[in-house]
Amino acid sequence: MSFLFGSSDALAAAPPANTIIGNQASATYLDPNGASQLATSNLVQTTVQQVGSFNLDGRTTVTTDVINKKIGAAGAIVYAPHVLTNTGNGADKFTITIDTTTAPPNGFSKIEVFADANADGVPDSTNALCSVTPGAVCTVPAQTVAGGNGTFPFVVAYSIPSTATAANFTSPQPATINAVPATLDLYELANQKVADVDHVVLTTDAAFNASKSLSVPAVSWVANGGVWPAARTSGPRSAASCPATIAGATSNDPNCLYTTYTLRFNNTGGAAGKFYMADTLPSGFTYVPGSAVWSNAPGTALGDGAGGDPVGIDFLADGQRLSFLVASLPPNVTQTVSFVVLINSTAEVGGTTTTNKAEYVPTKVPDGTTTTNPPTDPTTPTNPSPFEVSGSYGIVLGSTHASASPVASKDATAGTPLTTDADQTTLASGVAGSTVKFPQTVFNTGNADDTVNLTADVSKFPAGSTFRFFADGGSAPLIDTNNDGIVDTGPIRPGQSVRIVLAVTLSAPTPLPNGPFEAIVLGTSSKDSTKFDATRDILTSLIGVLVDLTNTPTGNGTSGNAGNGDVGTGPSPTPTTTTTTPAGTPAVFNLFIRNNDTKDNAFSLAASQTNNFPGSLPSGWTVKFVAGGTACSASGMTTVNVAAGAQVAVDACVTPPASQASIESQLIYFQVKSTGPTSTGAVAIDTKLDAVKVIAADTYGATLTPNNEGQVAPGGSVIYAHTLTITGAQSCGTQFNVKAVLPAADVTAGWTTALYIDNNGDGQIDTGDTLVGANGQVGPTVDLSGGKAHKLLVKVFAPGGATAGATDTATVTVTFPDQAKCGAPSATDISTVISGQMRLIKLQAKDEECKGTIVPSSSAALTVKPGQCIVYRIVATNEGASPVTNMSINDAVPAYTSLTAAPDGVQPQDQCVSAGVTPAFAQANYAATPTSVSCGSATNTVAPGGKATLTFSVKVNK
Known about the structure:
The chain is mostly beta strands. It has 2 helices and 64 strands. Helix content is 1%, strand content 45%. Strands 3, 4, 56, 58, 59, 60, 61, 62, 63 and 64 form a 10-stranded antiparallel sheet that branches. Strands 1, 28, 30, 32 and 34 form a 5-stranded mixed sheet that branches. Strands 6-8-13-10-11 form a 5-stranded antiparallel sheet, with no helix packed on it. The two termini are 27 Å apart.
């Protein structure tokens, strides 16, 4: 068996309705200083629409096809089985009606519909879903049927009047079965209603009806003390060594699966007759010779060949086809023939090819008919009898070393990794408080799709170390895709593999322990928890904490990853400091940043309501960092310079909205992160946890968020987005004034700003947005009632003579002339001049016909249907004043999609192009795998203003 890495077939199933497809692109390059940089694009998202499709007994339109032809005598009840299948990608309700306009005596005396959950062609109970006398329509209450081939089996019972004769009963008597979905707009016009037909024929002669089921009959078997093998409706394939014998069927071997079928037949006519029935077994099912029993001869095996049968029946087993002839079946008598089959090693996983029908002649067959001389009369099918072949599962976890394989990486003892390169990954060192990443490979060695649950034992790492799993590349976090509460790989096709990353965030204990440190990653099949395998990750040594963030100069003496500690790498499980403040008033936290490195550095400052960065504060909350000991009205800062071995104080002003209700403890995580290289080459980072207690305040209020920081080239511009939110319960009027103020020195140097109302909320300036006039007035008909939000854009222009490293702070302030109580919320936009700046913008467009000619022009969210295409366009621009080198744009093929390809569509013509790049990009610079695409080269130079564009198309799985 060969294994494929990262194939998009791992997610080839059509996405359920309302699935969100989203991702970000990235670009790697070397800046003018030769440092490796990574830029990311905006996130684009597409929601999969629900698409409806269904069939009734395999029919997808209104037809007059006769599905069941049933025969019965006067006074008889005949049963006609049907199955409605929802083949769409979401659940819907379906209304079923049975329509016959002929009333007795020329028609039925009663029509009823019954549920048939086990699909054995017989009503599950005596409780009818509907019951009418013709010419009324029997209407089944709307039934909810799951998407993705969910089914609703049902049986229609037709009562022939006891007074029916050939003279007064129309024969064949038709009945039309109609099915209509509830949400018609989801379906193509021809599929908005489906119909087929049942025919019932009156006879005074023999009239046979039959059904097939996975069930044990009421009579004894030929072995095992008369006890039949269980009638299983699902299970895994048997091992190739399992025999199709009576001994095998009674061995209870866990590697072998057998089941029991029962063919039930009766005579609803007025005379006895000779009855013929045949059953061709599905591929992969093998009849167990000598296992068939007729209900009139309990415990006696039917002869599989010529002769050897009990009196009254002729049975023949000829390969996959079983047939029998009952010499005389009297009226109103029900009999059975049951037999055992082996689900052999070649049976196809699933239920599509392992669901089948038997066939029978509904009238008596001519004299002289035998199983070796079968009748030529037309046959009638029974109900379909479904058997679900479940997969057999197996997984292997290993390294990404060239020697890794399902064989070389498989544990000798499951859960205990090997010590070879194929099953072990080693990293030389990691910085305390930093994150180290171990790549691994997950192989699906089973014969069915599987999703592998992932856990990691990092108990041998320094106490307080945490872990998280990512997709290949270590950028996209893995999530719980099957809702069992455990992070997993997502679905993997049999014989294929995926690569994942274990990211371990190292704690910072004092003193630093000696390595090596070991983690065991365990993968467990979500379909069979007895199937698991492990791989080992080793970190050879731990390097000390490079930066420490505390609430006091010395910290509180407790490790930052324990209790409420803030010494060493955090965050702690519980807050170190809790500050109480009225709503609308800043809560001030004293923060001390100590640089333990031997190199000076600048550290970025950030806050979040969770331990995820970049993160966000609760809606309406703001944070402002100021120099330690200054008021919250002082100039804000987003970075702080700290000399080697020194410590700097910073105050964080965390302000809840004025409308904030009382809250006992709102968690606030603070993080500092080095912006320049450290002595070890790693990023220095520390996070700590504090909390705010809020007491209720005035009901007037507004906020302007967020504070932004960005990069701009000399003579260039950068756009910052803000949201003005009315946080109080009361209105702030119908107008507001907004202004952006720059430091006087920056204005003199040539810095300028422009303000816009972002009418479409896309975060970009376009033709639909409104330029705010010089007086800053917005109104006078603006809705400023409680909870309303308005989007603003600030465009900051840098002078052409700005030097690299220079910063500008634009303070954006909003005032309310109608209601001063709403305050004057403000936000800051800090722009740093750089000489080399790569900016990515990702655009998307729906391509319904998958022609590849659509040119994306917006990042707005889309809605698409399965089978439609999405065209992505990523533009990377060097907005700096200096060249950058070795640039490459990279993007991933989103889950539930695959790269568009013939015959289902075409890719855009120009997938990798550039301007201002040497050597220029061409189609040869475009590369694609089933899971990723790229545009770039190993050696290139991007001039200031130069750009490259990656364009590709994906098709949403159908």
